[in-house]
Specification:
Layout lengths: L2 H14 L2 H7 E8 L5 E3 L1 H14 L4 E10 L2 E12 L2 E14 L2 E9 L2 H8 L3
Parallel strand pairs: 1-6
Antiparallel strand pairs: 1-2, 3-4, 4-5, 5-6
Length: 124
């Protein structure tokens, strides 16, 4: 598979909320970096992370509209969204993704987290 295909497969798996398949698509030493620069390491750690995020945002989705790949590097832009506590949100996003041996070694997202934080701030 080329890097674009691996990226698209990972996105489709996120959109299906298939945590076990996400784990299979990540390298063991996978690194995730969110839009605030928070870093999580390890595919098993991210299995737990994705499970928690899908529980909080049960209809989370990713929609890349531009995907560029060179070698094992993918850069993409698009948007993300979903709902938390019944309140819908969406925001533009970009991704830097490193592919190694047909798996995602690094998933770095650049997005404005304010819509999510605004909803979370309303929790009592």
């Amino acid at each position: 598979m080329d890097a674009k295909e691996v990226f698209r497969s990972f996105v489709a798996t996120v959109n299906r909320h298939d945590v076990e398949m996400l784990r299979a698509l990540m390298t063991d030493d996978h690194v995730f970096v969110d839009g605030m620069g928070n870093r999580m390491a390890g595919a098993d750690t991210m299995r737990t992370g994705w499970s928690g995020y899908f529980a909080m945002c049960p209809d989370y989705w990713i929609r890349p509209d531009t995907v560029i790949a060179e070698g094992d590097l993918v850069l993409a832009t698009g948007e993300v969204g979903g709902s938390i506590d019944g309140m819908a949100w969406q925001t533009p996003a970009a991704w830097k993704v490193v592919i190694r041996e047909d798996k995602v070694a690094e998933w770095r997202v650049f997005a404005d987290n304010k819509p999510v934080y605004d909803i979370l701030a309303k929790r009592v």
